[in-house]
Amino acid sequence: MTLEKIIDAAPSGIILLSEEQKILYSNNEITRILGYGKDQIKNRTSDILKFYQKENDLYEIDFKSCIDDEKRIQNTVYVKNGEGKYSLVFVSIAPLFEEGQPARSILMIHDISTMSDCEVIFKRSGEENANGFYNLVGRHKKMTELYEMIKLASESNANILITGESGTGKELVARAIHGLSERNNKPFITVNCSSLSETLLESELFGHVKGSFTGAYKDKIGRFEMAEGGTIFLDEIGDISPLIQLKLLRVIQEKTISRVGDNREIKVDMRILTATNKNLRELIASGGFREDLYYRLKVFTIHTPPLRDRGNDIPLLCDHFIRKFNEETGKKINGFTDDAMRLIMDYCWPGNIRELENSIEHAFVVCKTGYIDIFDLPQEIRVVKIKEGICGPADEEQEDRVQGKKGVRNRVTRDELVEILKENNYNKTLTAESLGISRVALWKKIKKFGIDDVNNVK
Ligand SMILES: Nc1ncnc2c1ncn2[C@@H]1O[C@H](COP(=O)(O)OP(=O)(O)OP(=O)(O)O)[C@@H](O)[C@H]1O
Ligand SMILES: [Mg+2]
Q1: What spacing in Å lies between the alpha carbon of 146 and ligand 1's midpoint?
Q2: Ligand 1 atom closest to the CA of 162, numbered from 1
Q3: CA 353 to ligand 1: nearest atom
Q4: Residue 130: what pLDDT?
Q5: Which ligand is nearest to the CA of 139?
């Protein structure tokens, strides 16, 4: 393989610049990032290769000091492609000296806009379809209510707090709000606030200047600045320290930030979405969260319902994930055996959709036939005791309370139930679905009405 082929296959953009900063050579990744062919950019200069701190705010690379001081320059900036769209890139420039040649420089551009926590969502995609909204799957009433809330939220510029148990799709909701909003051609930046220490989170959010703390060996722009014009999604907001809480309050009030180690104030314009699976009210009561910040973050609140509250969405989600993993793995799994489906419908999914997704992924590894069976599913789903341990016994009272359907359920008479069973060919899963109750609750009803021989009712 020639050196040129290797450079062309590199996952980073590489450019060789002349002394006058004319492009002498570029590889394939540069073509992808800039959206111009190699011939189009050859011998061109800064008219085609421009970097930005934020929209329309040019970032000038100091080539002179790079060459004169033999210094490497690195920064996270934006680059604009031929269609005028911005991508977030990590850029790095080093001088290149060769005997008998004028000084040149090598420029590397690494596109980081596709990294999961640092995404530039340019287009509206998906929107509403028969089974869901954006990438959210679900037709349960609680989900259609959620879609309405997302639409309302996307029309305003208010800060929004998304609450809900782990794995219920809070991040998908945040993406949908951004994707539907006027800001959707600007960056959507995610920060997981629980995964970094206070110092690192502070510099991640606000950026820092070189030397402001040990390890700060270069200037760095923070995520608030990266989100300029767009949306910042602060996940696990309940985990931020008092210092970060105070700084965040200032950002909201003053709409300015300053990088760590720098007093200059930088104006910022971004929409703040936050999420938590903690009870912030309890945290406030115990002194762990500022009440004034809480009210500023939750101008509008959206709650993602747990999966156990929307049992009749489970088959839909199962189909969705089976399709997804068939595509990803190249397998051809058609569905579940009746027994496996019964288990899935009866399990209470404390880890919600993430747990369902992971269980199906697990089953894809184990399953050797076209249908996922009980023993292909993770053990915890097979052990009913665990279900009871985590969720408590699912008695009808509790089921009613959880699903908020007491009125509807109590109106179902014995005759109506018999009728619905018949309509569904005595298939208990389908009957439970059409009643909007779990299979456990259906069994209890069948027992209560004394319809013991369900396949033989008159
Ligand atoms: N309604 C849904 N339809 C399809 N997939 C979903 C839905 N809700 C969640 N998921 C999937 O479940 C997984 C978990 O979702 P997400 O990360 O948004 O949850 P979360 O509420 O942010 O969880 P955590 O609090 O643990 O961070 C993701 O892979 C997501 O794609
Ligand atoms: Mg999350």
Answers
A1: 14
A2: 21
A3: 12
A4: 62
A5: 1
Ligand at shortest distance from the CA of 171 = 1
CATH topology of domain 3-110: Beta-Lactamase (3.30.450)
* Percent of the chain scoring above 70 in pLDDT: 86
* Ligand nearest, relative to CA of residue 131: 1
Q: What are the beta bridge partners of residue 387?
A: none
- Which DSSP letter does residue 128 get? E
Average pLDDT over residues 49-62: 78
Give the residue, by CA position, lying nearest to ligand 1 atom 8: 169
Give strand pairing partners of 163. Answer: 276, 303
For 33, 167, 282, 312, 436, the CA distances from 142, given in Å and listed in that order, are 41, 16, 25, 11, 12
If you measure from the C-alpha of residue 170 to the centroid of ligand 1, how many angstroms do you get, rounded to a whole number?
6
List, in sequence order, every residue forming a beta bridge with 132; answer none if it has no partner. 129, 137
Q: Is the pLDDT of residue 390 over 50?
A: no
User: Phi and psi at residue 166, in whole multiples of 5°?
Assistant: -60, 135
Q: CATH topology for 128-304?
A: Rossmann fold (3.40.50)
Q: CATH top-level class for 310-456?
A: mainly alpha
Q: Is the pTM of this model over 0.70?
A: no
Alpha helix (H) residue ranges in 367-413: 379-382, 384-391, 396-403, 406-410
Ligand 1, CB cutoff 6 Å, lining residues = 136-138, 164, 166-172, 277, 304, 320, 353-354, 357
Taking residue 451's Cβ as centre, other Cβ atoms within 10 Å add up to: 16
- Tens of pLDDT along 77-92? 888 887 777 788 888 8
Q: Which atom number of ligand 1 is nearest to the Cα of residue 172?
A: 18
Angle value at C-alpha 14, between 12 and 19, nearest 5 degrees: 155
- Short-list 89, 90, 73, CA closest to 81: 89
